[in-house]
UniProtKB/TrEMBL annotation:
Its main location: membrane. It comes from Candidatus Paenalcaligenes intestinipullorum. GO terms for molecular function: cardiolipin synthase activity. It is a multi-pass membrane protein. This is PLDc N-terminal domain-containing protein. It comes from the Bacteria.
């Protein structure tokens, strides 16, 4: 045995370059074939094959960690959808025609949503616009304090700060009353504060979980595949969703000089709550393997205040709902006739979506795009400035909003259709993150959202091509280099 070990050692010492070469060829070829066969985007496939070929040993390991999508098990999703359909015997039928509500041009968008969402467009919803933490957080805390049976809560960021503490205290009080609670926080988002919010959640024994922490048996989060969804459903009767995380910087009480960051959230009552819960239940079961029963967490009878509006949830993510938000935005821009308003803190659309926006502008549709003048993510701002000239060339008006940073994600079309929620207009939201948005057919709601966007425009500076050309070459080069990495920012 000793002689065999010595012989093997000598063999490895003498032929290690050949063994390493053979190993790298097999490993690289396997990874390259996998990338070529599984990537639907030719640019992504070419990029990964290039990384693997240029770095035959390191490249396959990078691809293994960041390039392979292993997040969803369709069996869980299909079973959950069957249960949803069995439970969701709505008292009202789905909306059959949106012509009277929004206009004839939206019929095709309605059909697109039916095929993309797998949720039906339902009337009977009451939707309210909540501006910033000063409006949203008190309403959410009030709902928690009024909870009698269940609270399901999901957030990308849930900071362990003064506002986070108020939510923890309210959840603890609810649990003491016998309310069933489930809290889901993204594993990357949980690291925005130290110590993490999981410490007080554990202290109060509030059932919680971190989305996507287990990677190859190691306790580390995926860098790319994040749950960016923001959801809260209380007693199956009151719900909240939109763009807001749980952070004290979005309240004037704790912001420096009372210059709180801005955002927009939405309260919901009505049938769309079952869809909100379905999204949460998918993510909770995927993360914890616990199946939450609809009959324990939802109701089918609502008496929401007027007005009643048609709405539905749009799930998207790197799973079987891949690019749902992308498809909906493409469809909306295609049916627009008069006006498109877009507000996004991170406006870096891909080539296809950029083409849809530019085509709308060239058809004569007025397109207004509002982005922050002072972004909270410097690298994202550099990437935005690297390609923003493309929409200006097409005739879009780009506005850089002054004042406090605005995190809102809002889109309206022709004053009748609104698309709001967690999705930014960038590659991460369109392809990598798990997102949840709300499609709303209502002129009153669209008008309220348009008013918010127009108020930003009133205090914004129009971005001109001359201003972009005047940027020094070194900065333009920096912007383009950062832009190359924009899908992962």
């Amino acid at each position: 045995m000793h002689d065999a070990i010595v012989a093997l050692r000598h063999l490895l010492i003498e032929y290690w370059p050949h063994i390493t070469l053979a190993f790298s060829i097999v490993l690289g070829a396997t990874a390259a074939v996998h990338a070529a066969m599984t990537k639907n985007d030719v640019r992504a496939a070419i990029s990964w094959v290039g990384v693997i070929i240029l770095s035959p040993i390191l490249g396959p390991f990078i691809y293994l960690i960041a390039g392979i999508n292993r997040v969803r098990h369709s069996q869980i999703s299909e079973q959950r959808d069957k249960t949803y359909k069995q439970f969701a015997s709505y008292p009202t039928p789905p909306v059959s025609d949106v012509k009277q509500i929004a206009g004839a041009q939206f019929r095709s968008l309605h059909i697109l949503g039916d095929n993309v969402s797998r949720f039906q467009l339902r009337g009977g919803n009451h939707v309210q616009v909540l501006q910033g933490g000063d409006e949203a957080y008190p309403r959410m805390l009030e709902a928690i304090d009024a909870a009698r049976s269940t609270i399901a809560m999901q957030s990308y960021i849930f900071d362990n700060d003064a506002i986070g503490a108020r939510f923890i205290d309210a959840l603890a009080r609810a649990q003491a009353r016998g309310v069933k609670i489930r809290v889901l926080v993204d594993s990357v988002g949980s690291k925005y504060s130290r110590p993490a919010i999981t410490r007080p959640l554990r202290k109060h024994k509030i059932p919680h979980a971190l989305f996507m922490t287990n990677n190859f048996g190691l306790r580390m989060p995926y860098a790319n595949l994040r749950s960016h969804r923001k959801v809260m459903i209380v007693d199956g009767l009151a719900g909240f969703t939109g763009g807001m995380n749980i952070r004290q910087g979005f309240t004037s009480e704790f912001a420096p000089d009372h210059q709180a960051a801005k955002d927009t959230h939405f309260s919901i009552e009505g049938p769309a709550l079952i869809q909100l819960f379905s999204s949460f239940a998918h993510d909770w079961e995927f993360t914890t393997k616990e199946a939450l029963k609809y009959e324990d967490w939802c109701v089918t009878g609502w008496c929401p205040p007027l007005p009643h509006v048609p709405a539905r949830c749009i799930r998207s993510g790197p799973d079987r709902f891949m690019s749902s938000n992308h498809h909906m935005l493409q469809g909306a821009f295609a049916v627009a006739r008069r006006h498109i308003r877009i507000q996004s803190p991170y406006f870096i659309p891909d080539l296809v979506l950029m083409g849809a926006i530019n085509t709308a502008a060239r058809r004569g549709v007025q397109v207004d795009i509002v982005v922050p003048k002072h972004n909270n993510l410097r690298l994202v701002n550099y990437a935005m400035m690297a390609q923003i000239d493309q929409v200006i060339h097409a005739g879009c008006r780009v506005w850089r909003a002054n004042g406090a940073f605005n995190h809102s994600k809002l889109v309206t079309v022709d004053g009748a259709w609104s698309y709001v929620g967690s999705s930014n207009m960038d590659s991460r939201s369109l392809r990598l993150n798990f997102e949840l948005d709300l499609e709303i057919y209502c002129r009153d709601t669209a008008k309220k959202i348009e008013t918010l966007i127009d108020e930003e425009i009133e205090h914004a500076d129009a971005l001109q091509l001359d201003e972009l050309r005047a940027i020094p070459f070194r900065k333009r080069l920096r912007n383009r280099v950062i832009w190359l990495a924009s899908p992962y920012l």
